[in-house]
Amino acid sequence: MIGGIGADGASPLHRLPAGSKLAGLAVIATALFFVDVPAVLAIAAVIGGAAMLSTGRAPARLARDLALPGLAVVLVGLADVLLVDAATALVAVLRLAALLFFAQAVTLTTSTGELADTLERALVPFDRLGLLDAPRVALTLTLAIRFVPLIGAEIAAIREAQAVRGLAGHPVALAVPLIVRILVRAEEIADAIDARGFPPPRGPGILADRAAPSPAVPSEDLPHDHP
Amino acid sequence: MTTRDIGLVALFAAVIVALGAVPAFPLAVLPVPITLQSLGVMLAGLVLGPKRGAAAPLVVIALVAIGLPVLAGGRGGLVVFAGPTAGFLIGWVPAAFVAGLLAMRLDRDGTPALVRALSAVRLNALTRPLARGGTGTVSRLLGLIAAALIGGVVVDYAFGIVWLAFAAKIGLAKAFYGSLAFIPGDIVKAVIAALVTLKVGDAYRLDRR
After folding, report:
1. Do A198 and B13 touch (CB under 8 A)?
2. Residue A226 within any structural domain of the chain
3. What is the pTM of this model?
4. Which of A185, A195, B27, B164 is disulfide-compatible with B175, CB 3.0–4.6 A?
5. What is the ipTM of this complex?
6. Could you say which residues of chain A have pLDDT below 50?
């Protein structure tokens, strides 16, 4: 498994529900794109920085978190100074910095589990409309996280087998067996999931349609799955 | 989506994440790190087809949004979407879709129009082996390279450049020239993706959807 960035803590931002934080972030991000006044953007950046510091993460670690995206912002500022003018550079850098700070504040105070739950809840309206299947989406995300170390192990196994036969590492020689193994493995995984009775039968309240088909009618026969 | 499709999408999303752990080769001073992750996006489109191919990078983007460090260099979290280069990330979804759609149309036997046109202008020494010797393999390879290039380079760069132009306020032309430095690397990746897909197709019947 891979660990998330979000850390434990008891700051006011930690206690705020994940949905509110994401909605707030979306509103702030949208609003900032319509503001061109450096002073307002600077105030936003200061508030964002304060929100980030209120999470209780050590400033040294914050600096490390933001080193890579911060470098991108600095380069954008340099490009603006060289290609356009200093005023544009100031606006662009302040806006991106404010966005970075607010986004980092949300990420640091929200666990991956909370965000995944929020995501699944956000998908429920689309589920009701029949556009997608929230449990399946959630399963796909969970499986993808689980499969990252699996892919790493597959790559190591293929490399070892090729090294034993005296073959050097070549991207094509590595990727071809990897993809073929993945295609074969998807069958095994599907069998394993089906054997465990996924998707679960839908209870009343999740869907308006209480007479939803039981798993005996495989949903893969739905017409939208076929071009 | 069948259960098998869920497994395939999750596995290809994991491949895209895993390719981010392969050391990136720094190319220019621009803020887009050159990584193999876009190779994974092209492969998802070429191997799985448009719908499932686009779903794989979409899963990666969802994992980024929920704060997992799944991008190259351990980047993740909502910070990524605030950055000036987020368009290249968002563009992965339409890129894989277009690559998959074109792969469905172009990965087939027969002399491609390009080779036929070249033969007509008497570039025989170059095109005769292409048109004749490959018995379909060369035309399939060219089709797959075209699919990977149009999806993985043209479509992804269109999203990335427009986003960069607006987020960094540098204008479309400057964003375009600034992004040119990364195109050679992506062309190499498109050729690798096409070669891999061709060889995988020899070993396993691909059905693109």
Report:
1. no
2. no
3. 0.73
4. B164
5. 0.80
6. 1, 204-227
